[in-house]
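Okay, can you check this protein?
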Amino acid sequence: MFLGIDIGTGSSKAVLADADGHLLDSEVVAHEVSYPRPGWAEFDAEGTGWTEVARLCRALFDRHDAGAVAGVCVSAMGPSLVVTDEDLVPLRPAILYGIDSRAGAEIAQLTEEFGAEAIFADSGKALSSQAVGPKIRWLRNHEPELFARARRWHSLSSYILAKLTGEFVLDHHTASQCDPLYDLRHNQWHPGRYAAVAGHLPQPRLAWPAEVSGTVNAGAAQATGLPAGVPVCAGTVDAWAEAFSAGVRHPGDLMLMYGSTMFFVQVLGQFRAEPRLWTTAGVDPGSLTLAAGMSTSGSLTTWLQRLFGDTPFETLVAEAAAVRPGSDGLLLLPYFAGERTPVFDPDARGLIAGLSLRHGRGHLFRAAYEGIGFGIRQILEYLENAGEPIRRVVAVGGGTKARLWTEIVSDITGREQIVPEQTIGASYGDALMAAIGTGAVSAATEWARTAAIVKPEPGTAAVYAQLYATYGQLYPSNREHLHVLAALQEPESG
C-alpha cells in the first residue's frame, strides 16, 4: 500500500492506495486556520498539522496492516513558512501562502534591493504575497529575537517530512515559490540572494516531489504506527499534488481546480513567464508550470446560500438552472475578497450590475457561476497568450459535483472539461508519488481515469460573448470607486 497525506486549508486527508491506483481507504479530519490580525493567516504546524498526521495514520492502521505500507508522501497548503529550533520545535505558527499579506513592505524592499527585472528573469514571476522570501525578511524585521533563535526553515510539507525522517529537504516546486531565493532557470538556490534574505538559516537540500528523501525514524514510527524504515518522498504543495493526481503532467495540460477559491496549473514545454501569472517548477523532474488563482469562487456561492437563509444548495442550483444563460441581463464581478489573477488587487470588491425588480435568487446564484466563469475565461486567455496552447482541461475539486457550474464554465470558455473518476485530490496524488518514488510503478504511471466530459453548448456562445465584453469593463471602469468602498470597510483602529 502507498500512503498519501495532505494538510489542506480546511482539513487534513490521508488515503491508502495500491499500485494500480485503487483507493483502499481514506480518512479526513477538519481543522481551521487562524487569522490573528487583518492580512495575517497562520497555522499550528506541530499541534495541529503533525498531530493530525499521527491521528490519520492511527485511524487507517486500525483497519489496515501498517506493515504493508511501502511508501509515504505528504503535501500541504503552501508555500508556507515554518521556522524551528535545533530540536524541530516550531518557534511560532506557520505563516501561510498568498492569503497572508503581512509582508507588503518587505516585498517592496526586496524588489528594490534586487531589482524587479532581475527577480522576474530568475524566478519567472514578480514578488507577491505568495512568495516565501518576503515572509522570511518580515521575521527578521519584526521578530528579530525569534529569528535569531531559529535554526531551520521549512514549508509545511517539508516540516512533516522532517518530523517523519529527520531530513532537512525541500522539494523543487515549493522552492520555486520561495522567491527570490531560488533560481528557476537552473533549479538551485540563488547564490547571490539566499544569505541576503535567509541570513544564518542553512539551505535545505533540494529534491523533486516524488524523490525518496528519507525513511521513517523511530520517533515517527511510535507516533504514527508506521514501521520504521518506510521510504518517504519529498512531497510538495497541495495544488500541484492534486494536478498530478488528475494526470496533468504533459505540456498543454491544464488543471482547473474548483474550490473555495479557483486555481489553475498549466504544464509548460519550455520556460515562459508573464507578469500576471506565476511560473514554477512542476512535480516531474525538470518540468515547468504556469499558475494562476482567483480569490473567490465556491466561497461566493456559500455566501449566497447563507444570505438566502441557508436554503438547500440543491434548491439554489435547480433555481439557477431554470434561469436562461446570461441571467436575464445580470452580471456579477466576483472580487468579493479582492482578486489575485489577473488584477492582483487586494482592494478590489464585488459588483452586481443590472439588477431589476424581476430578478430573484436563482438569477443571483446563476450570475455568481457566470461571473466566476468570465473570470476563468480571462485567465485561460492570459495563460494561453503567455504560455502554450491549452491542449486539455481537467476539472477537479468539490465544485465539480455541481454539474451546472462546470457546464456554465464550458459554455463561457468554449472548452471541454475532463472530470476524473477519482476526485479525492492531493492526497491521492501523494500516494501516486510514493508509488513512483519507491519504484513500485514506472515514472510515467498515471492513475487518473475519466468519469465525464463536459462539452460547451454552442447555442450559448453569442449571449456569453456579449456579456464577456461588458464584464471586461466592469473592473477598470469602477476600480477607483471600489477602492473607496474597500477603505470604508476597514475596521476602526483601537
